[in-house]
Amino acid sequence: MAISPLMPVYPRCEVEPVRGEGAYLYDANGRQWLDFASGIAVNLLGHGHPHLTQAIQKQAATLMHVSNLYGSPQQMAVARRLTELTFADTVFFTNSGAEAIECTVKTVRAYHYATGNPQKYRMLTFSNAFHGRTLATISATDQEKLRKGFEPLPDWFTVLPFNDLAAAEAAIDDSIGGFLVEPIQGEGGIRPATPEFLAGLRTLADKHGILLALDEVQCGVGRTGTLFAHEQYGVTPDVMAVAKGIGGGFPVGACLATEKAATGMVAGTHGSTYGGNPLAMAACGAVLDVVAEPAFLAEVKAKGERLRAALEQMIPNHDLFDHVRGMGLMLGLKLTADSRAFVAHARSNHGLLTVAAGDNVVRILPPLNIDESHIRECVEKLSAAAAAFQVPKAA
Ligand SMILES: *Cc1c(COP(=O)(O)O)cnc(C)c1O
């Protein structure tokens, strides 16, 4: 048989971590990497964080799973905390980001259905967005590499240029029920929405009686230095999808909504077997214990500024580096060459894990609890990697 026992949908690289400690990963031979990828913005307390691992261990031994047919004090406690910490009045827990987006889209649909506008079933999304890999979520992007081979896809989304408010306004008609947007595009290349764009979408949504749904799966949960990125824009959504960091490595996602936006999400309209099980809630609660503290968030902001300043100082020394963008500890280093090749080089030859993104950007997504020494080490490794990097010849 030629096919791998693991369905070969990922072009996996040579790194095979078996252990993690803080901001470092180790393979079976003891080889070490500085992990500034964090499982793609997931391990926001690094690896083996004692508060998180103890919470999971304790809950695993007490009660791992019960059906959502039963009451869940564990889920209620985390939902209550999230509603206290955010704009939201109600929360649905999922196991992944794509499922959180699915719930978000269903919430918007159900709102218009329940309020007598079932024709408003479409949503406006934005170029280079990434909302996940399910059939609904790949139909919400224009990224060819996600859609190819899976068309025809449901025609529920119109994809518009990102940060183009006039295009968004012009696209609203009676079939549009809302916007779905990442405040900072992650996979698309660490592209922040402009303040005018996000605020403008809020204004348009209010004017047309439609909903603003944010995808904070990557930029949420402290990553940018506030609990959620939209706080820094002064823009409040009606619905928001969250995942990645919120379980700190345990699979958890959530769809948060205002009471009004959740009008249609009544008993029987949605569900998930695992979503919000006690083990997931223990992880989520432990992450929030640490990340939702104002002092911790202030530290993330300060570290983000120091990392950004250090990167900016390094840029003029290397033709490879163009500029830095992003917010907090969600930074993108724009290259003048292929970022995928550079990420592989830094990983293989300099022991530094980062993630490539669209637009030849190197995504720098460290754990949020790094210290000064990790920032220095990252910049030293990037600098050494750039000095040794042979720009691949164009094909
Ligand atoms: C990763 C991601 C998703 C999908 O999350 P999964 O857990 O992989 O399903 C959705 N939106 C954004 C912005 C993401 O970064």
Q: What do these coordinates show?
A:
The chain is α/β, with parallel strands linked by helices and 395 residues long. The chain has two domains: 17-49 and 294-388, Aspartate Aminotransferase, domain 1 (Alpha-Beta Complex); 63-291, Aspartate Aminotransferase, domain 2. It is built from 13 helices and 17 strands. It has helices spanning 38-41, 50-62, 73-85, 97-114, 135-138, 144-147, 165-170, 195-208, 230-233, 278-291, 294-314, 339-350, 372-388, and strands at residues 17-21, 24-27, 32-35, 90-94, 122-126, 157-160, 176-181, 184-185, 191-192, 211-215, 239-242, 253-257, 321-327, 330-335, 352-353, 355-357, 361-364. The strands form four sheets. The chain has a seven-stranded mixed β-sheet with strand order 4-12-11-10-7-5-6, with helices on both faces. A four-stranded mixed β-sheet has the order 1-2-3-15. A four-stranded antiparallel β-sheet has the order 13-14-17-16, with helices on one face. α3 runs parallel beside α10 (278-291) and α12 (339-350) crosses α13. The longest helix is centred in the C-terminal third of the chain and has 21 residues, at 294-314. The chain is globular, with a radius of gyration of 21 Å. 49% of the residues are buried. The model has no long low-confidence stretch (mean pLDDT 97). The structure holds pyridoxal-5'-phosphate. Pyridoxal-5'-phosphate (PLP) binds at residues 96-98, 101, 130-132, 182, 186-187, 215, 217-218, 243-244. Pyridoxal-5'-phosphate is lined by residues 96-98, 101, 130-132, 182, 186-187, 215, 217-218, 243-244.
